[in-house]
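Annual report, structural modelling task.

Input specification for the calcium ion complex:
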Amino acid sequence: MTRILIAEDEPGIALGLEDDLAMEGYTVEVVSDGLSATRRATEDPPDLILLDVMLPGKDGFDVCRELRRRGLRTPILMLTAKTQEAEKVMGLELGADDYVTKPFGTRELRARIKALLRRSRPEEDPQRYAFGDVEVDFERAELRRNGVVEELTPLEFRLLSTFLRNRGRVLTREKLIAAAWPSETFTSDRVVDNHIANLRRKIEPDPVNPTYLRNLRGLGYRFDG
Ligand code: CA
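The model returned the following structure:
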């Protein structure tokens, strides 16, 4: 049973989420303030936490910071208000894994939840990945598209590996640099974007309108696949 803790103080939204996720087969618990969210998440860690930003008592940012400080690794999906770009950045900096913007569609939310759960399962770290017409074999350092080998630079491989191991999770350029670049090299955001553009040409059906490697304006990138 996959357990989801919902921290949301608006009864209408909480109820809707609870019903929808229960229908999907998840075991759902709802709390309506920040202190209860922190307490329940640490007492009995769920598989995923849906965390509203504006909560009474202790807001979602404080809850997120506190849970990460205590070493909790459960994926956290923040529910942020529309147009609050700063909220998204802040949540991610405090250790949230992803966000959805209110008002959100249930399909989008379900997809985000599934992606985070998939990523967080420890057995999900295979040497081979497949998405669309692409197959990646990290052991052989080989990428095939429709069965044909595409040449990737070592850096592109490290970037792709970082994305595939963090599917569904927003990665800032800072995180990408830390993960894929040799330490002590100076890299700008622009350079990261250039390498991602090159990578897209090798994996995307339409590199100009990417399906997998999505850019999130002002935040970074997320691999959806
Ligand atoms: Ca709220």
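The chain is about 40% helix and 20% strand.
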